[in-house]
Amino acid sequence: MAQAAIELIGINKSFGAVRANRDINLEIVRGTIHGIVGENGAGKSTLMSILYGFYQADSGEVRVGGQPASIKTPNDAIALGIGMVHQHFMLVDNFSVLENIILGAESDALLKKSIVKARSELERLEREYGLEVDPDAIIEELPVGLQQRVEILKALYRGAEILILDEPTGVLTPAEADHLFRILRQLKEQGKTVVLITHKLREIMAITDTVSVMRQGTMVATRETKKTTVEELAELMVGRRVLLRVEKGEADAGGVKLAVKNLTVKDTRGVTMVDDISFDIRAGEIVGIAGVAGNGQSELLEAISGIRRAVSGSVMLDGKPIDLTGAADPGELRDRGLAHVPEDRHHVGLVLAFEENENSILGYHDDPRYLKGPFLNIEAIRNDAKDKIAKYDIRPADCRLKTANFSGGNQQKIVLAREMEQDPGVLIVGQPTRGVDVGAIEFIHKRLIAMRDQGKAVLVVSVELDEIRSLSDRILVMFAGRIVGERGPEATEGELGLLMAGVEHQEAAE
Amino acid sequence: MDVFNAVVQTLDSTIRLSVPLLLACLAGLYSERAGIFDIGLEGKMLVGAFAGAAAASVFHSAFLGLGMAILISVAFAMIHGFASITHRGNQIVSGVAINFIAAGSTIILGQAWFQQGGRTPALQPGERFEAITLPGADAIHDVPILGPIYAELLSGHSILVYLAFAMVPFTWWVLFRTRFGLRLRAVGENPAAVDTAGISVAWLRYRALICTGILTGIAGAYLSMVQNGGFVKDMTAGKGYIALAALIFAKWKPVNAMFACLLFGFLDALSIRLQGSPLPIIGKVPVQFMQALPYILTVILLAGFIGKAIPPRAGGVPYVKER
Apex CA B183: angle with CA B178 and CA B186, to 5°? Predict the structure, then answer.
């Protein structure tokens, strides 16, 4: 008879008026990998934070190993053998691996003994689980995949029997994610229990034994992974059937709208990030740029939109050059019909402390539609914002609300609405659906395709391969600052994956 | 031999002048490494100086004076903690407020208690920390070179001077060799990591501020009970700020902090020594220029001569648990 590692019975948790968890019941079987899926804001992280002692449930009971447990602080959770790998790593960046491992789990007031002990313990964990990492390396010098491994080691070092991972693959390359899954399977074989929180259904299908679905704070279903499908899970998550691939007709490409020629861009350290890239985008087509994050896509976007200085090359918009000295006037580019939805909407796309209606015209505030003499026409701005809210289904539908209070997906819609509704000739979008939930992804994809069908030129950069394949009429793959291949939308994931990993590129070079 | 003696004397006063800076700098190191900016070093030194001199004068005991200096200074550090840790207030504003409270209250209380225009009564022998003569200092005084170095430079300081310099390796040891130090450094870099490791961020930061208060208290006591024979209003004269500059210059490292403070102390000693005497080539330099030299140097050093100084990453940011 399978034994429950964790039982949650009737858990409730509210933050003010928001009921983050409602009457949650969940049983996690020892020695299994249990997935928890749900849209952003469905209450997954809150539930796990209750389990880890970060928050207290308003009501309900937690049982660990069959015994009622009172988990008031992370310390209690650690003592019960619960370890957590957070979405944003809880590591001290300029500490060594060893120092991070022992922090909070030191054996006595002096460090010497703890360090010796941790070193030998790390060797043991390395042997048992294949978790090798240099104990003396400084965290910030390690790649993200290894930093995550340190987080896992931290939990194991504290004797975790139950490991909770919150969106662990968000920052990983496909290869790193595969490695992580191998590690998780190994942990399972050793009898550990793994709880995987994610919104990526493919991962759930690939690795979990059981999956629970959350929607709007409630636990809507628990299924055996073998007996369910991606479609069923997606439907449970959003409460209705969703198209995972957007239907679209053939592209009807017209003349060249944006021409990039021999563009080279260096980053602030002087490293060449974009290396002699040339491509065109025509009216009425979507060009997707695929690639593992950090292969020059961000720099390419910034150069085209005039934010970052290019070392050489040219970019022509409707046959006329764009200023690539880094001093381009964004207002002028907007007037010429170039709209840009930046990758990092928090820092570049929005002023979070502003009201929604102010952000919905940001950058277009000189437009006579929003002006009354030298003053802003507040009424016109708010009416305009209300229209966009209705059209893009931005929630909550309150144009006076501070932008920081919208969820990530809705913030993205605010930026998209602002840029798309200006009817630009060329739309450049970085990570259109990063952090956006399934329902909104579909909507955003449909809007982008509608733009295309109106004869706009659209450039999409995304690290989500599914997204690129579903949207693009042409796919360009970037690797190490160069375009290493161009494929049609029919390209397989495997084919693109190899290009993204630079495999074909290296073979060709040899 | 005159030049040699002049050098020894200048270095001797370098040591004396750098002690309050060093203590304040190490004090700031504890709090800033824990992620709490402390612009109130100045104020805490000042209340320490006042409390020390007042208590020593009333109770006729140097050690009671020192104890009171530490107590009051720690109390002020706790006010800073209450505002900036418990209530997540702005650390700069809280620090500035502490400086104002210190400047005002020491004068008011001094006048109310002693009626000497804000001063405390001149300290008598036994109420001050006297110079300690190291063993054998008198014996080898006349040995050339080594004699004066040992007898004048190393010997003949008060216990607080030796304590200040002993604090340098001690602080290093605490920071890098103890559990408390590891956690203190961690909370200044990433408090969330400390929190999820099951350690109280607030209590850790309060303890760091207690260390700060103890050291600024000693620094204040040194000013009023060693360097001077009593408290004079505003006697810290910006030393708390210079100590902060030295802390940045030292990149928040204890041994570097000692050298930074010795450098500022040396400039101070030099400006006193060279007042009125003409320099070779340049000729006579106005006194004011020499007095301004340490401050000019501060600006130049901080403007870029020190390379990139990366402060503790969580510095100045109150810790709020994420939802």
Answer: 130
Rounded Cα distance between A30 and B57, Å, is 70
B222 lies in a domain?
yes
Q: Does A54 touch chain B (CB under 8 A)?
A: yes
Contacts of residue A480, Cβ cutoff 8 Å, sequence gap at least 6: A275, A295, A296, A502, A505
Instruction: List, in order, residues 6 or more apart from B24 with CB less than 8 Å away.
Output: B41, B45, B215, B216, B219, B239, B240, B243
The residue among A82, A103, A114, A163 with the most chain B CBs within 10 A of its CB, best to mutate, is A103
Please give the helix or strand (H or E) that residue B8 lies within, else none: helix B2-33
Question: What pLDDT, on the 0 to 100 scale, is given for residue A17?
Answer: 65
pLDDT digits (tens, 9 = 90+) for A101-121: 999 999 889 999 999 999 999
**B190 and A CB contact within 8 Å:** yes
Q: Check if the beta carbon of residue B91 is closer than 8 Å to that of residue B316.
A: yes
pLDDT at position A254 is: 87
Q: Helices A111-129 & A174-189, crossing angle to 10 degrees?
A: 90
- What's the domain count of chain B? 1
Residues B261, B22: contact at Cβ < 8 Å?
yes
Contacts of B47 (CB under 8 A, 6+ apart): B72, B73, B76, B102, B105, B106, B220
Instruction: Decide which of A415, A436, A451 is a domain's last residue.
Output: A415
DSSP 8-state class, residue A295: S
What's the predicted TM-score (pTM) here?
Answer: 0.76
Residues 6+ apart with CB under 8 A from B279: B285
pLDDT tens for A284-312 read 999 999 887 778 888 899 899 888 888 99
Q: CA angle at residue A108 from A105 to A114, to 5 degrees?
A: 60
Q: How many domains does chain A have?
A: 3
What is the spatial distance between Cα A286 and Cα A257, in angstroms, rounded to a whole number?
12
- B303 and A CB contact within 8 Å: no
User: Which chain A residue lies closest to B183 (C-alpha atoms)?
Assistant: A103
Does B152 lie at the interface with A, CB-CB under 8 angstroms?
no
Whether A365 and A461 map to the same domain: the answer is no
The ipTM estimated for the assembled molecules is 0.88
